[in-house]
């Protein structure tokens, strides 16, 4: 067995440790906390099976419905993964597939009454959460946070198409 001196490992003092948590990591923490709270409240309102991954449908679906390819392109999630989430949501009664009137080979995915109810509940919950944060941290702080995040989001939307990511069903 080699002695500790003969290994290629460097001493702990050379292990890189940031002086403070990187901003993207903080944003990820805030995202997980926010969506965790969303799903706790949705469950209390009768929507216990909805998961973060279903956002690729609920966030991007149009009022008249959307094609799977559109949901994939807008969400940045692969068509295969979006198809699996649509299958789940259809099984739970949140969406339905109907023939595309412009192309009989294609299907339009649209929200059912249950899906519209869940989307409305989620939007209301998000508004409630933002109001609660404004009460806790100050309206100006939250307004400035929103302004910066919207600007970052607009930059992403203007940039070249981001390649789709593979999303696992565990989210």
Write a brief structural summary.
This protein is mostly helical and 171 residues long. It has helices at 23-44, 55-58, 68-75, 79-92, 113-137, 139-158; strands at residues 95-100, 103-111. Strands 1-2 form a two-stranded antiparallel ribbon.
Reading side by side through the largest sheet, how are the strands ordered? 1-2
Class from helix and strand fractions: mainly alpha
User: How many individual helices?
Assistant: 6
Large-scale geometry: globular
What order do the SSEs take from the amino end to the carboxyl end, as H and E? Answer: HHHHEEHH
What does the radius of gyration come to? 21 Å
Q: Approximately what portion of the residues adopt beta-strand conformation?
A: 5-15%
Q: Would you identify the regions where 5 or more consecutive residues have pLDDT less than 50? A: none
Average of the residue pLDDT scores: 89
| Helical percentage | 40-55%
Major β-sheet annotation: 2 strands, antiparallel
The counted number of beta strands is: 2
Distance between the termini: 42 Å
């Amino acid at each position: 067995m080699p002695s500790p001196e003969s290994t290629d490992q460097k001493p702990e003092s050379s292990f890189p440790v940031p002086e403070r948590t990187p901003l993207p990591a903080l944003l990820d923490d805030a995202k997980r906390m926010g969506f965790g709270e969303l799903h706790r409240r949705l469950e209390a309102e009768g929507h216990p099976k909805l998961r973060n991954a279903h956002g690729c449908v609920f966030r991007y679906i149009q009022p008249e419905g959307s094609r799977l390819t559109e949901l994939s392109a807008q969400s940045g999630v692969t068509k295969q993964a979006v198809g699996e989430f649509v299958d789940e949501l259809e099984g739970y009664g949140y969406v339905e597939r109907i023939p595309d009137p412009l192309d009989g080979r294609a299907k339009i995915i649209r929200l059912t009454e249950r899906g519209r109810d869940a989307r409305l509940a989620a939007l209301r919950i998000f508004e409630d959460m933002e109001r609660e944060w404004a009460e806790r941290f100050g309206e100006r702080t939250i307004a400035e946070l929103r302004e910066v995040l919207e600007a970052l989001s607009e930059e992403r939307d203007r940039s070249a198409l981001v390649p789709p990511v593979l999303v696992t069903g565990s989210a």
